[in-house]
Design brief:
alpha+beta, 3-stranded antiparallel beta sheet, about 30% helix
Length: about 90
């Protein structure tokens, strides 16, 4: 029997590889809106983050999502990510 391949993605903050299901995708849509993509399948430029308080705080402090997605990230996105951790 074939073993199913698990898709791996890299967290933009920690630079560690995790299974795609353990990360959350922050997405810049073609209309330059920023959303949290829970399905991982929407169109646009995405960046993956580990769901952890420290990782989200570091992403906000270093503004790594701003550089990765090349757009200003509103505070509401960070608040939504924090809510997902709980």
């Amino acid at each position: 029997m074939k073993v199913k391949k698990i898709p791996m993605r890299t967290c933009v903050v920690t630079r560690e590889k995790y299974p795609k299901s353990e990360l959350v995708r922050v997405l810049r849509t073609p209309l330059n809106e920023v959303i949290v993509d829970m399905t991982g399948k929407q169109n646009g430029r995405g960046a993956y983050l580990k769901l952890d308080h420290e990782v989200i705080a570091k992403a906000k402090k270093t503004k790594i999502l701003n550089r990765t997605l090349e757009v200003e990230i509103p505070d509401t996105i960070y608040e939504e990510l924090e809510a997902l951790v709980k």
